[in-house]
Write a structure and sequence with these properties.
Strand 14 and strand 15 form a beta hairpin. Helix content is 47%, strand content 21%. The protein has 4 domains: 152 residues, GAF domain (Beta-Lactamase, 2-Layer Sandwich); 129 residues, GAF domain (Beta-Lactamase, 2-Layer Sandwich); 151 residues, 2-Layer Sandwich (Alpha-Beta Plaits); 272 residues, TIM Barrel (Alpha-Beta Barrel), CATH 3.20.20. It is built from 23 helices and 29 strands. With 791 residues, the chain is α+β, with helices and mostly antiparallel strands. The strands form 6 sheets. It has an 8-stranded mixed barrel with strand order 18-19-21-22-23-26-27-28. A 5-stranded antiparallel beta sheet has the order 2-1-5-4-3. Helix 20 packs across helix 21.
């Protein structure tokens, strides 16, 4: 093909295009119509879905933009960025290119497609050609019109800029003064000083006009009076009072009717006065009205702050100890964590939980418990360094935020001081009360917020409490234990929290059951009682014994409900069984908190009455750890339990300590004043009878049995598992025992059949704890045959 023919053909096409575009644009009556027609021409020329001609934030004309809602914000963004996407109602997302109109400053042509196919280079050159023609046509036919319009806009813009600059300068001055005033309010400057500052500042900003502040006086039945006035001469008091009285609600009067301008001052939604400005009959302009309203609000703020500062302090402070509360601690901790990024100081949290506090609360009452908390708070303050921040979280829980270059080391030292402070007894109501501390320590790491850091310290505290649960000797303070948070602590805490949740659900849905272990008389092997033992048939973990769940959930409210259920259920069963075995005794275990609880005797009486069980048939096992509490309180609480008619046995007595054969636990002297009917030898002592320290263990058992006989106390051995232990217990004078060898725990349905097997025959009279009439011989391991083999 001849090249010249191709060129001639393209020139002819270009000429046709120019002729078409010029004809379309030249037929327009004004600049706006030129731009509108240009959009239609471009749309036809490049087959675009959307075309818009924009100038600044204004759209002069377009194609495909919809009829009602123009996407002005999207177009403005695309124009600013030189291209991109924007949403068009009815079309969706549109990808656009932007072409400048060369001779018209600020005018752009936006061309878009919805198919996400970019505009071809040839089409883009065509759009640029049309844009060039648009500029030429507008300048040739409508240039003078455009120039006049721009000149008018420029003049108006200059005047508006001057006005805005003046207003901005005044507002900046108002803002600066307001900031200074707010700082004065936050600094708790005296209220009269603040009110005078309001009057002075507003006068300065309003051209040294006289200003008066009028407020209601609560000491004179809320009559209005002038409390601050500036200006020379000042506003007459009657004129200021009249202006304040003429306000309606929270309005503003700008003057102009012969009276001054005024704005309402209020406290908590109630108008209590006004800020009054003399205008000499003039009307305040918009800026002046803004100044007046702003400083009236400042007066309201100052008054409200003075009126509510006590309320604010109360909301952020624990009323019992005057320490900050949990919410305040979390806010402080958030600030400390943010500050760590700037000053390089690390942060750590100590979570302090009091050991033995619940026993104090239950035994001496809540008033005594509150006094203990107050004294503990004062001791905690004495341990703090200058920047440490302590708070009471609730109950017997406290927390301390520690900051330093080595936060863990500093927190450990503080924890040691806290444990030392709490080691000495607290005098409450004339008694020496001992509480200790279990402390969890968590160090801040990147990305850990305040709430999570406090939760980690809480988890570590529970681990510390578990480690320090071993009882000390009578009169000793509970040991202070400090544990640092580790990942495995978190896992244990998750399990504990899940366990508490499961426990509450299990109590509600009755997932617990009781099994009953025989109590055997060693002289003839007769079963004279049963001990109720708790089991939890967990949905996923199977059958659980109390050691697997009660220790970790000791604070759960469900534990109290569970114990009452055990008491009622066991008493009801025993009442049924005693119809066949009238002398059968029932043993129920108490925890320390239940033994010292004020509600314990009431719960026992309720269970006995509900079941119709004779009180003397119920034996309550009291853990020996109860003796670590105040002796007078222990004696009083146990006497109240015994007054129900139930018999008391001191459980876990004479446990073997870390040194082989050494006895730990309560002093033997305590048996003289305790209102108990017997004692249970701890299984660790029974296990030593046929072990390496057998002679010493046997001597200890013999001594305890002789002491029990002298004090008229029955002695029960638990954990009997071997025949040699039976023989040695009988030789030492122990009359009653229980253990797997003598009878494993059995379900409630199995007990009646065992009772129907008959009695073992007459037996000699034993101490009060022993039942004189036997109710069953243990089959097939009869104690008499066991004794025969051992001999």
């Amino acid at each position: 093909m001849d090249v010249s023919e191709v060129i001639a053909g393209r020139l002819e096409q270009a000429g046709d295009l120019l002729e078409h575009v010029l004809a379309e644009l030249s037929g327009a009556d004004g600049e706006r119509e030129v731009l509108t027609r240009a959009a239609a021409v471009v749309a036809d020329l490049v087959d675009a879905d959307v075309v818009a001609v924009c100038e600044g934030g204004h759209v002069h004309g377009g194609v495909g933009l919809g009829q009602r809602f123009l996407p002005e914000r999207g177009l403005a963004r695309v124009v600013r960025d030189g291209g991109g996407t924007f949403a068009v109602p009815g079309l969706g997302r549109v990808r656009a290119v932007v072409v400048e109109v060369p001779d018209l400053a600020g005018v752009r042509v936006v061309v878009g497609r919805v198919d996400d196919v970019p505009v071809a280079p040839a089409h883009l050159r065509a759009v640029q050609l049309v844009a060039r023609l648009v500029g030429l046509v507008v300048l040739a036919r409508h240039g003078s019109e455009r120039e006049r319009r721009l000149r008018r806009q420029g003049a108006r813009g200059a005047a508006e800029r001057d006005r805005l600059q003046q207003a901005l300068a005044q507002r900046e001055q108002v803002l600066t003064t307001s900031v200074r005033f707010q700082r004065a309010v936050a600094g708790r400057r005296p209220l009269p000083e603040l009110l005078l500052r309001i009057a002075t500042s507003s006068s300065d900003l309003l051209g040294a006009r006289p200003v008066s502040l009028v407020l209601a006086d609560p000491r004179s039945q809320m009559r209005m009076r002038v409390v601050a006035a500036v200006g020379d001469p000042p506003i007459a008091p009657d004129r200021a009072l009249a202006a304040a009285g003429g306000l309606e609600g929270f309005g503003v009067v700008v003057g102009g009717d012969g009276g001054p301008a005024a704005a309402a001052v209020h406290i908590n939604g109630r108008v209590v006065g006004a800020l009054v400005v003399e205008t000499d009959g003039e009307v305040l302009d918009a800026v002046g009205a803004t100044v007046l309203r702003a400083f009236a609000e400042h007066a309201s703020t100052a008054l409200s702050h003075a009126d509510t500062v006590r309320v604010v302090e109360a909301a952020s402070t624990d009323p019992l100890t005057n320490l900050p509360n949990r919410a305040t601690l979390l806010r402080h901790l958030e600030v400390a964590l943010r500050a760590s990024a700037g000053d390089g100081l690390g942060a750590a949290v100590l979570f302090v939980d009091l050991d033995g506090f619940k026993a104090v609360n239950d035994s001496l009452g809540h008033a005594a418990g509150d006094e203990v908390l107050g004294r503990v708070a004062r001791r905690l303050r004495r341990c703090l360094r200058g920047d440490d921040f302590a708070a009471r979280l609730g109950g017997d829980e406290f927390a301390v935020v520690v900051r330093g270059h080595e936060p863990e080391r500093a927190a450990r030292r503080l924890a040691e001081r806290v444990c030392a402070e709490l080691a000495s007894p607290v005098q409450v109501h004339g008694r020496a009360v001992r509480v200790g501390a279990s402390i969890g320590l968590a160090v801040a790491t990147a990305g850990v917020g305040a709430a999570e850091l406090l939760r980690r310290a809480d988890s570590a505290m529970y681990r510390a409490k578990a480690q320090g649960r071993a009882p000390g000797a009578v009169g000793e303070a509970p040991p202070g234990v400090v544990v640092v948070f580790e990942p495995d602590v978190h896992e244990a805490d998750v399990l504990r929290r899940q366990l508490e949740s499961d426990l509450q659900r299990a109590v509600a849905e009755e997932e617990f059951e009781l099994v009953y272990q025989p109590l055997v008389r060693l002289s003839d092997g007769a079963v004279v009682g049963v001990e109720a033992l708790l089991r939890w048939r967990h949905r996923t973990r199977g059958l659980l014994e109390p050691g697997a769940f009660l220790g970790g959930a000791e604070r759960s409210p469900a534990v109290d409900s569970l114990w009452r259920w055990v008491l009622r259920t066991a008493c009801a069963r025993a009442a049924q069984w005693r119809l066949e075995a009238p002398q059968l005794s029932l043993t129920v275990n108490l925890s320390v908190q239940h033994a010292l609880s004020r509600s314990g005797p009431r719960d026992v009486l309720g269970a006995l009455t509900e079941a119709g069980l004779e009180p003397g048939a119920l034996v309550l096992d009291v853990p020996a750890q109860v003796l670590a509490a105040d002796p007078d309180v222990v004696a009083a609480r146990l006497a109240q339990l015994r007054a129900t008619g139930a018999r008391l046995v001191l459980d876990d007595f004479a446990a073997v300590g870390p040194a082989a054969g050494g006895l730990a636990g309560p002093s033997l002297a305590a048996l003289r004043w305790l209102p108990v009917d017997g004692l249970k030898l701890d299984r660790s002592l029974v296990a030593e009878l046929d072990g390496p320290e057998g002679p010493r263990a046997a001597a200890s058992v013999r001594t305890l049995c002789e002491l029990g006989a002298a004090l008229d106390l029955g002695v029960v051995a638990e954990g009997v598992e071997r025949t040699e232990q039976v023989r040695l217990l009988q030789e030492a004078g122990c009359s009653l025992a229980q253990g797997l060898l003598l009878g494993s725990p059995r379900t409630a349905t199995e007990v009646p059949a065992a009772l129907r097997e008959g009695a073992a025959g007459p037996v000699p009279q034993l101490p009060d704890l022993a039942v004189p009439v036997p109710v069953q011989v243990v089959p097939p391991r009869d104690v008499r045959r066991l004794l025969g083999r051992s001999g």
